[in-house]
Amino acid sequence: MNTKNNQQFRRSQDLMEKALLTLLNDPKKPKITVSAIVKRAGINRSTFYAHYLDLPDMLDKTESKLRRDLMADYPHSVPLSEPSFVPFLNFIKKHRDFYVAILKTRTTFPLRTEQEQLFSRVINPLCEKNGMEDEDVYVLIAFQSAFTMILRYWVENGCQESPEEMAKTIYQTLPACLQQ
């Protein structure tokens, strides 16, 4: 029986994620649909819906998985600086096609719960240092909204600037209380 988190369930999920990434990287740029994903993955449509509510849900969950992979490679104590953005930007560039799709569908931005590591390691300590602990969630929102739109523009335009150039741009747009 294919129950949640058994070997077959995880295998189906891996097949769907690979299908999604393959479709996103296809030079012909086919329309990404549930039908296209299940066909490419060789699974039934009902299997897709056992894993995801819909295509945006799949994109969100795939993004969360990619974010966990990225954070696993980051040092635990990262100061907010231009160099601290470069590994992240390299990761975004490597997965550019995925991020073009996910940033187009972004209608909200993740708040404290999804960005707990960023919040607890970086935003909150800097806000406390600058006497803004009561405003820390607003600082996070300002940071995320600017960061998201900058990334969206960068990936939609083919990542023409280097990750180092983008790191400088992003750092310069940070709220003043986050600049060291």
Automatic annotation (TrEMBL):
Keyword Transmembrane applies: no
Pfam families: TetR_C_8 (PF14278)
Keywords from the UniProt entry: DNA-binding
SUPFAM superfamilies the record matches: Homeodomain-like
HTH tetR-type domain segment(s): 10-70
Residue ranges the UniProt entry marks as DNA-binding: 33-52
Lineage: Bacteria, Bacillati, Bacillota, Bacilli, Lactobacillales
Protein name listed in UniProt: TetR family transcriptional regulator
